[in-house]
Amino acid sequence: MIVIDADSPTPPYEQLRAQLAKQIQDRTLAVGTRLPTIRKLAADLGLAINTVGRAYRELEEAGLIETRGRAGSFVSAAGEEALEQARRAAREYAEVVAGLGIEPGEALRIVEAALKDAATS
Description:
- This protein has helices spanning 12-25, 38-45, 49-61, 78-100, 104-120, and strands at residues 65-67, 73-75.
- By secondary structure, it is mainly α.
- It has two domains: 12-76, Arc Repressor Mutant, subunit A; 80-120, no CATH class.
- It has a two-stranded antiparallel sheet.
- The longest helix has 23 residues, at 78-100.
- The radius of gyration is 17 Å and the shape is elongated.
- The mean pLDDT is 91.
């Protein structure tokens, strides 16, 4: 379920993009799931067509969805690939910090700080 908060300082397209991305990444929306058309989702959420279109474009650029012309937009298998790439990077990081003798709690704090930096840049 998508909820757009009109009082939020976050633009509606970003709220929509983030919620769909989360549903794709946590597999609430499985690979191959057909998404509503831009017009239908815009009408359902009370948003402008361009707002939903922007969210879909950004999801497509991130490789989370793919548009197949008139057939519509679908959850892409690339989302699975992105998760696997993240898992590989996490394993490599774990090996590096273990080799350096860094405690797991400190290693997690380092990752949290890096994620916060990445989110703000």
